[in-house]
Amino acid sequence: MIHKNLPFILIATFLLIQSIAQAQPLRLVEISKTNNSFTPLDTIPNVTNGFFIFPDFSAFNQLNNHFVIRMTDLNNQERLYSLDASSGAIISNPIVSALTPEDQISEFQFDNSTGELFGIQRITNNAIGLKYCLVSINTITGNHAVIDTLDYISGFDYYQGRTAFDPIKGHYIFSSENNTQPDRLYSVDVTNGNVIHNPLFPVLADSTDELIHLQFDDSTGNIYGLLYDASLYAYYLVTVDPITGLHSTIDSISGLKSVNPTSHRVTFDPINRLYIFQGQEANTAGYLYSINVNDASIASKRPFSLRTNPDSISTPYYLHLQNSTGKLLGITWMNDVTTSLEEGSINDNITVYPNPFSNQLTIEISELEPNIELNLFDVRGKLIYSQQFLNSHKFELSRGDWASGVYFLQIRSNTSNYMQKVVIE
Asked: pTM here?
């Protein structure tokens, strides 16, 4: 939970864990749908102790039941891991080809009618500047092939889960900035790269509203998402029309007060018609919600949050549902004995202002903490500021020579770990 003036829990779009997970391996886990526990599957050896949640580096192949995720090995090589969903065993882990440290392929989406993997490639070139391409990726070789360049966009929205795939029509769907106009929702034919639809999106009554976490229902062809109404402090389950960009409200979600738009803790169950995500109620830790898409009623809700001791386990990321078995899977780091999640402190006593800021950022904590560590990361995950404070509840960060842009503030105490996006004007 966050301060009432900040409608979302804007946890960083990446989670850099190496400083607190040096002894814990990464694992694929099966997450219980009924209680606050999970079953550890196999570990993922020889990968760095930290992994990034910026942007979306995972997808699930429903045809062969492979959990696919891009991670960095101990030699600093980017690899594409295909994990067996039943055991967690590594099926393949090729090096992702033709990537420089400045480039990346992300926003993975499987076509579950063909088993082909697609994504967005970002290319940084001093001569031509920043450009984006729609690509297909071979999970066995790690090679990718450019389907078409996306010269009509000037930026890509990595933050709010606005990509999906329509296997019925073969369309890769994404929201992005146009060179001269507001954001649009693009439907691109993956056979030739042609833009089929590109309506304005999202179409909102208020600029402070948000529409996030698009999920495609393969069984009906519907796209679902979460709409936040800032004037009512309420969340709604909605359907989105990719042709018009308009949304239709199903109903509000009772009790829901905040949703993390960047954590990739959202998936869809097409068999039971459930929209699944992590959210919070007022003054509570996180819950895993399963929402009926027919009427937005809560089918189930159970605790789903960090342990009080953040050095033991992370709440699973990259949630995917295996359609053939109904299993809910995710990636976490954990020690060899921990098998359940405990409710930890969700920092609803933290206020960060002004945001955006020009010269100075203030952080206030309503309760005195004996030991606070402040870290600031840039969008590439580089630590640019770190400072520890003893017995304090108010902190000020001066901008210094930091460039304008998006940064991620981490506030750690002995019992909790909080991250928020901040913007320097």
From this structure: 0.76
